[in-house]
């Protein structure tokens, strides 16, 4: 069945690929490009002619609203909201190097408030649809348990905070019938046989699966990668 | 005499931690954020040689630098740094940033500013986090700003741990329990623990050694470990 999908953070490689996959599969796809990335807009226009791409400034909620209003006008509802936010500081090294705290704040605002505003703005449209799904394109290094890195504070703190945001939304919205996908992607995936590519993971209705184990997944928030491995928080 | 610096020490858990360290004979630098609140000054009168009050706003880089200069004027070695200062706010976008700035970025500012004093000491970094930062245990349906700030703090501590544990630093990540403290602006009537109770437990975890320093664990007032 054709889905109405909005992909926010379309300049990130995994989001770009998803837009192309969804488009090829015949879904009606809209793209939100953040970070003033004109090349992405051009690439989407070239490769996916029917995809409407919006330039979104996460600092300016009116740009998010504009995209939501457009989709409401055209489609009346939204089925799936896919989010991606991967901004990093230009120089964010090890502890002790003395960080640029203002830049960390800006990056956190861009990543975390950007996703927060987008979910809040699109919730009414998602409520009007039947699928009611929120997906986040994540990275395994957002796991506080697993992370082995020593640099990129703004980026890591943003992703960990977004995991918490999704958990709170899960608690609030799952009783309304919302479902969530928190998918970790990796550049290393290229050329490998993936057990669960992002497109499949995000579209699949686990609550329809014959196996209880899969169905039960809808009732907790999990973070999984393309090999369907569960990643701890 | 061993030395400790505690942020957000005017009242609540921070102030009671100050008392525990003073009673145990430590030299204590108490970060003072609200000079109009006189409790620290009363304590100073009781321990004039052991307690130093340091004006400190952990969300302000210049204030943290000035605090460093004031402490470095008095001592060459800081043994323990306790990042306790914390705020809770509503869920507006501004509050998301403000809460992050104090609760998560404040400790990053403090640690990297004070590291030069810590390299020759006990090398212990303590952080007052919260169950509210645990994604596994999260049960709330709002309170985004506070919960996200504590998750961000836990992540920042992980990154610091990855860098500094190989250099001999040890870490304490502490959840004080539900405390009858002043986070809402006045002394809370609800809560499970008095600040004194959780401070005593915090003190024993902060000064005591562990046989498992290579693991970063969030522990609470009952010495129970929490998942991230
Ligand atoms: N109370 C609980 O149930 C609970 C549960 C879990 C974790 N915690 C954590 O425990 C820690 C201590 O909190 P508490 O319960 O003792 O609350 P509290 O009584 O409010 O103590 C926190 C102290 O930090 C100060 N502070 C605020 N902003 C600051 C800044 N920018 N720089 C320096 N100091 C600042 C506060 O001053 P103001 O009063 O002027 O803001 C206050 O004196 C916090 O990190 C909190 O998140 C508390």
List strands and helices in order, with pairings.
The complex is a heterodimer of chains A (233) and B (228).
Chain A: E1 4-8, H1 13-24, E2 28-34, H2 38-47, E3 52-56, H3 61-75, E4 80-83, H4 101-127, E5 133-138, H5 153-173, E6 179-184, H6 198-203, H7 212-216, E7 223-225
Parallel strand pairs in A: 1-2, 1-4, 2-3, 4-5, 5-6, 6-7
Helix pairs in contact in A: 3-4, 4-5
Chain B: E1 3-6, H1 12-23, E2 27-32, H2 39-46, E3 51-55, H3 61-74, E4 80-83, H4 93-118, E5 124-128, H5 144-164, E6 170-175, H6 195-207, E7 218-220, E8 225-226
Parallel strand pairs in B: 1-2, 1-4, 2-3, 4-5, 5-6, 6-7
Antiparallel strand pairs in B: 7-8
The complex binds NADP nicotinamide-adenine-dinucleotide phosphate.
Output the number of helix runs of chain B: 6
- CATH architecture annotation name of chain A: 3-Layer(aba) Sandwich
CATH homologous superfamily of chain B, by name? NAD(P)-binding Rossmann-like Domain
Task: Please count the beta strands of chain B (DSSP E, at least 2 residues each).
Answer: 8
Tell me the CATH topology of chain B: Rossmann fold
Describe this structure in words.
The complex is a heterodimer of chains A (233) and B (228). By secondary structure, chain A is of the alpha/beta class. Chain A has helices spanning 13-24, 38-47, 61-75, 101-127, 153-173, 198-203, 212-216, and strands at 4-8, 28-34, 52-56, 80-83, 133-138, 179-184, 223-225. In chain A, strand 2 (28-34), helix 2 (38-47) and strand 3 (52-56) form a beta-alpha-beta unit. In chain A, helix 3 packs parallel to helix 4 (101-127) and helix 4 (101-127) packs parallel to helix 5 (153-173). Chain A is globular and about 55 Å long. Chain A starts with a strand and ends in an 8-residue tail after the last strand. Chain B is α/β, with parallel strands linked by helices. Helix content of chain B is 41%, strand content 15%. Chain B has helices at residues 12-23, 39-46, 61-74, 93-118, 144-164, 195-207; strands spanning 3-6, 27-32, 51-55, 80-83, 124-128, 170-175, 218-220, 225-226. In chain B, strands 3-2-1-4-5-6-7-8 form an 8-stranded mixed sheet, sandwiched between helices. In chain B, strand 1, helix 1 and strand 2 (27-32) form a beta-alpha-beta unit. In chain B, helix 1 (12-23) packs across helix 6 (195-207), helix 3 packs parallel to helix 4 (93-118) and helix 4 runs parallel beside helix 5 (144-164). Chain B is globular. The termini of chain B are far apart. The interface between A and B is large, with 43 and 41 residues. NADP nicotinamide-adenine-dinucleotide phosphate binds next to helix 1 of chain B.
